[in-house]
Design goal:
heterodimer, A: 542 residues, alpha+beta, four-stranded mixed beta sheet, 19 strands, disordered N terminus, B: 307 residues, mainly alpha, 13 helices
Chain lengths: 542, 307
């Protein structure tokens, strides 16, 4: 019978489909249950997990657990303290001699030597290795040989790095950079074991480092199990048995798992849940400033924004923005109204100043209107704000900022929003200098230094100077600060440079971004560091 | 029959090429993926150029497409930015989503057809109106609302199930997400079945079967239902593809690492190999499901023949 043969075929197809899917099986309860283990939310790292290739929080989280570098930023104060480095000496702020402490090992028992650092740095700088963080090595002599702008590298190693003996190496910088040792707490400067170079594939599958945790298993896109490394000799031994990082596709889902007891720690509270968080978690909710600032940058490459007298308009727009209201209403105080171009996470000693922006950053609609009218009004009578709107409530705050500006000026809807669908598309328009109105720029510092908030963003021709701001006095002060060997004096110079930003207003500081986290009753002593990453090794499990 | 299948398979080729090209073009239009790799920082030009060269992004679009298709025919779907082969991603994602789809389809078939038959036979009665109102409600509520609501009620408030699905995603954990995913289609299946049954119940062959004195059960299952199922099967067939691709919302809510998740990540990160690769497979699934539906017609109605 015809029908019957067809039916047989259909049944076979179904059987094949079922067989293909049956291989998943097996249940893994994981959850917030295993004794002594913290379970924590995670996002899939964007790039392969190599120290010099990781530039976002999710991968950085892991590196922070499995690596220790020459310096480490104190999670509380942000101060860069010697860690693997016994001492870092210099007489001229340009040539440094680095001596390592005894007794450090990778978790595969290989000792950490000067060579481990030099090899790792050369690898990070090598253009053929395509490491995102290569520019961090650009201060070292010989960088251009391993990382030419075009063509193949002339050398495999940087001539500025010389190994003296297993415990000592020297670094020659191209220019004086007094605070350079302070940058060495950044993860791109981590040492690497030999297996990284000999069995790269294998290493990426199961990274080996020298930190308080070792990687027990890693399933890309799903999660990573980290376990306490018992032979770790550092002073920051893990106080818990390990951390299970679980990949969540949506921070709402992670939050749901937290309040239903399946997860111990969420380090990103979804915006929609902020109104419930006090009720749900009480004092298990953490909300503290991180090294992140959001600004509106003006396209100064466009003459209509940079011509004489426009600084008044720029300041006026800044004064027309009601930061207090917006951070309260839209971000529910997970943002702090900005008072300068750095971050409170730097601390007063590190260069944060609550007065640097002064009047220009406080809401004053009448003064705003006056300033803008004096300077002849907005260019073309209008202003358009641009940002990607795929994450971070960007659409909401841009609407609010525009409302604020429109209300202050009272000239009708002169401010409009230009929403860009994806981050990639926004980056394209931004980095090809196509935008003709103020655009969002977010900046997360790599190390808690005022230098990192100013130089890459506002120095003439600097890598992330998307508005093409250029001011000889500003550049001069930055150069002087970098030459200054006394840290306090260098910081003061940077703050002086910041005053130029306050007068010129190449970008409007909007708000500092806080780190927000929530945790279960099982764990205690949860804190975030300045990068809004939980300090995992100090978390206690009851 | 054999020739029919071959002809259908050959017809798939232009559809396949056309759809992959469209997807390729659309992903490309989303912007430069390499710029986004560097986060808020400016991409280092030399490094970015190397990455572009490796990913073939420095070539004109048509060359990129040819290169990509050439790779695909060798079974190489390229590499995602995190260094994972796209084929690896597929191997981990498709079984999960397939399981979810099977749960959803099973629920659709069992619940949807049963409800449809009942209300179709009791046309105009209160049970019929009840089903109609209920399905209307289900259709009008978006999936993410039912998803979060059911997750909250069953997972958080009453604690009957885990609110999220573990990485292995075994069948028993997929029942709740399966229901969420199935709900809207289930309502359509119910309504389609109901209408079809209500129409055919007055047909001559049903009257004949009743007149022959066949038991009511046999009349309904063998005569009435079998003939009424053709539109329903058509719908379910196309729905297989739609469910697999459209699981993005459901998978996000329940943290299921399936096709929807990979597609979402791929789009967010502008990762063309992932997006195009996954959509290509989805296109094939869709085409095959449609072929299967057409072949099933003959099982349901032997009068249908393929030349």
């Amino acid at each position: 019978m015809r029908g019957a043969t067809h039916a047989k075929w259909a049944a076979c197809a179904a059987a094949v489909a079922l067989a293909a899917t049956a291989c998943g099986g097996g249940s893994d309860s994981g959850g917030g249950g295993e004794a002594g283990i913290v379970s924590s939310s995670w996002g899939d790292p964007q790039n392969p997990l190599e120290p010099a290739n990781t530039n976002e929080v999710q991968g950085g989280k892991v590196l922070d657990m499995i690596f220790r570098g020459l310096k480490r930023y104190d999670p509380k104060t942000g101060e860069a303290k010697n860690f693997l480095a016994e001492k870092i000496e210099t007489t001229d702020s340009q040539n440094f001699t680095i001596t390592l402490k005894d007794g450090w090992k990778f978790s595969n028992d290989e000792p950490v030597t000067a060579q481990s650092f030099v090899d790792a740095w050369n690898y990070g700088a090598d253009v053929t290795k395509k490491q995102n963080n290569s520019p961090f090595f650009s201060d070292i002599v010989g960088y251009a040989d391993v990382h030419p702008e075009k063509g193949d590298p002339k050398a495999k190693t940087m001539s500025g790095l010389v190994v003296k003996d297993p415990k000592t190496f020297t670094v020659a910088l191209k220019e004086k950079f007094s605070t350079w040792p302070e940058t060495l707490g950044y993860q791109a400067f981590s040492p690497l074991p030999k297996s990284f170079f000999t069995d790269h594939e294998g290493w990426l599958k199961k990274p080996v480092g020298n930190g308080p945790y070792t990687v027990d298993s890693y399933t890309k896109g799903t999660g990573m199990k980290l376990r306490k490394w018992d032979a770790y000799t550092g002073e920051d031994k893990a106080v818990n048995g390990g951390v299970d990082l679980k990949v969540y596709t949506d921070n709402n889902t992670a939050y749901t798992d937290l309040i239903s007891g399946n997860l111990d720690l969420v380090d990103d509270i979804p915006a929609q849940q902020l109104k419930n968080v006090a009720n749900d978690l009480g004092d298990r909710y953490i909300n503290q400033p991180a090294l992140i600032i959001q600004t509106l940058t003006f396209p100064l490459y466009d003459p209509q924004w940079s011509k004489e007298g426009m600084d008044k308009v720029r300041r006026g727009i800044s004064m027309a923005i009601n930061r207090d209201e917006i951070t309260k209403q839209i971000f529910r105080e997970t943002r702090t109204p900005a008072k300068d171009w750095t971050s409170p996470a730097l601390g007063d000693k590190g260069g944060f100043s609550a007065t640097a922006c002064g009047e220009a950053c406080s809401f004053n609609p009448t003064e705003a209107k006056k300033l803008i009218q004096e300077a002849g009004g907005l260019p073309g009578g209008k202003v358009t704000l641009t940002s990607n709107v795929d994450t971070g409530s960007h659409r909401d705050w841009m609407d609010a900022v525009c409302n604020s500006i429109n209300n202050a000026l009272g000239e009708g809807p002169v401010c409009t929003v230009n929403p860009v669908g994806t981050f990639a598309d926004f980056r394209n328009q931004q980095s090809s200098f196509k935008l003709t109105g103020p655009f969002r720029s977010g900046w997360q510092a790599d190390y808690p230094l005022i230098q990192n908030f100013l130089e890459p963003l506002y120095y003439t021709g600097a890598s992330s100077n998307y508005g093409k701001f250029s001011n000889p006095d500003f550049d001069k002060l930055v150069d002087e600060a970098n030459r200054e060997s006394d840290t306090a004096k260098a910081t003061a110079k940077f703050q002086e440079a910041e005053k130029i930003l306050a007068a010129q207003m190449p970008s409007i500081p909007l708000w500092y971004q806080n780190g927000s986290a929530g945790h279960s009753e099982r764990i205690s002593d949860v804190a975030l560091n300045q990068f809004s990453v939980p300090v995992y090794d100090q978390i206690k499990v009851s | 029959m054999g020739r029919y299948v071959i002809r259908r398979l050959l017809q798939m080729i232009p559809v396949f090429i056309g759809s992959t090209f469209l997807i390729f073009f659309m992903v490309y239009a989303l912007g430069d993926p390499v710029a986004a790799l560097f986060g808020d920082k400016a991409p280092d030009p030399a490094t970015a150029a190397r990455i572009r060269k490796d990913l073939y992004l420095d070539q004109p679009l048509w060359k990129q497409y040819l290169h990509y298709m050439g790779q695909i025919f060798q079974g190489d779907f390229g590499t995602a930015f995190n260094g994972q082969k796209v084929t690896e991603l597929m191997a981990s994602a498709f079984p999960v989503t397939l399981r979810l789809t099977i749960v959803a389809i099973a629920i659709e078939i069992v619940v949807g057809i049963t409800l449809g038959v009942i209300s179709g036979l009791k046309r105009g009665k209160s049970i019929d109106s009840g089903v109609l109102v209920l399905t209307l409600v289900v259709i009008s509520v978006p999936t993410f609302v039912t998803g979060y609501l059911l997750q909250f009620l069953f997972g958080v408030k009453w604690g009957w199930v885990r609110p999220t699905v573990s990485p292995d995603a075994p069948f028993n954990e997929l029942i709740l997400p399966g229901i969420v995913l199935a709900l809207v289609s289930l309502a359509y299946v119910t309504r389609l079945t109901r209408t079809s049954i209500a129409e055919n119940v007055k047909a001559d062959y049903v009257r004949t079967a009743v007149a022959k004195g066949l038991p009511r059960r046999r009349v309904v299952t063998r005569h009435l239902l079998r003939n009424s199922l053709i539109p329903v099967v058509t719908f379910i067939g196309t729905d297989i593809g739609a469910l697999m691709g459209g699981a993005i919302v459901t998978e996000r809510i329940f943290n299921i690492h399936g096709v929807g998740y990979q597609l979402y990540q791929g789009i967010l990160r502008n990762n063309s190999p992932t997006v195009v690769g996954f959509v290509t497979i989805l296109v094939i699934v869709f085409l095959l499901a449609n072929l299967l539906v057409d072949l099933l017609y003959a099982v349901l109605d032997p009068r249908i023949r393929y030349a």
